[in-house]
Amino acid sequence: MFKNTEDNHQLTNKLDPNNIPAHVAIIMDGNGRWAQKRHLPRIAGHKRGMETVKTITKVASDMGVKVLTLYAFSTENWKRPHDEVSYLMGLPVKFFNDFIPDLIKNNVQVRVMGLIDQLPAQTQKAVNDAIKDTEDCTGMVLNFALNYGSRLDITMAVQSIGRQVASGTLDPEKIDDQTISDHLMTGFLGQLADPDLLIRTSGEERISNFLLWQIAYSELVFTDVLWPDFDRVVFEEMMLEYQRRDRRFGGIKTSK
Ligand code: FPP
């Protein structure tokens, strides 16, 4: 668990450039508490959280992260008050409106996973335009989980596999890990589908229906810092913690 220790300015120099996690996934939590602490409406926290998304996208891309997956809206978030949901649905419109030129300049490709066709029309348009505008970018993939839930993801994958079995195009005996990975919403990422590092902000230590299959061997790192306060320094501290971990994937440490 990390605190934001403002005193650490030289972290980038301590990071091993050969051990940057290829896929980083983030559960961006604490926007509401950030706002409440300041006696502001919750949406002020989401607004500020959107600025953090811009900062961390640039930092991650500069560090050499290949995929940054951000949990922006879950299938359970529809339970929030109507005004808050409306505001959250407007954020991608604002975000892409402001930030597409920077994303293109930084060669960042936008992708979105989740039930996009259930989103309001203007949100769908913003998302689809962003995907199209950045489709030729070959650098980091900025992958938003929007109206995403991992149980939904797994359920849809099972349905799709079931249809192939029923139509006779897939032998059930041939179904393996890779078949399932390929059918999940992260399937388009190929070998990069599984996060190496999963971060959750705000002091909560749970997964909240995010990438349940894909995080089987991810390193999990938590911080007390609320998402609107998350910055380059905290991110680098978490990357350093990742680099201290000994990843064995169920095997034993091999001598170098
Ligand atoms: C969780 O904080 C945050 C969310 C449900 C929304 C996350 C969205 C953003 C950070 C902005 C996304 C930007 C784009 C471009 C889509 P919370 O509200 O649950 O915080 P709390 O636990 O303190 O109440």
Automatic annotation (TrEMBL):
GO cellular component: cytosol
Binding site for Mg(2+): D29, E219
Keywords: Magnesium, Metal-binding, Transferase
Annotated GO MF terms: ditrans,polycis-undecaprenyl-diphosphate synthase [(2E,6E)-farnesyl-diphosphate specific] activity; magnesium ion binding; manganese ion binding
Cofactor note: Binds 2 magnesium ions per subunit.
Highest taxon of the lineage: Bacteria
Signal peptide: none
Active site: D29, N77 (proton acceptor)
InterPro entries attached to this UniProt entry: UPP_synth-like, UPP_synth-like_CS, UPP_synth-like_sf
Cofactor (UniProt): Mg(2+)
Binding site for substrate: 30-34, 42, 46, 74-76, 78, 80, 200, 206-208
Biological processes, Gene Ontology terms: polyprenol biosynthetic process
Documented EC number(s): 2.5.1.-
Entry-linked PROSITE patterns: UPP_SYNTHASE
Gene3D superfamilies in UniProt: Decaprenyl diphosphate synthase-like (3.40.1180.10)
Function recorded in the entry: Catalyzes the condensation of isopentenyl diphosphate (IPP) with allylic pyrophosphates generating different type of terpenoids.
UniProt record similarity statement: Belongs to the UPP synthase family.
NCBIfam families: PRK14830.1 (NF011405), uppS (TIGR00055)
The protein's assembly and partners: Homodimer.
UniProt-recorded name of the protein: Isoprenyl transferase
Source organism of the structure: Lentilactobacillus sunkii DSM 19904
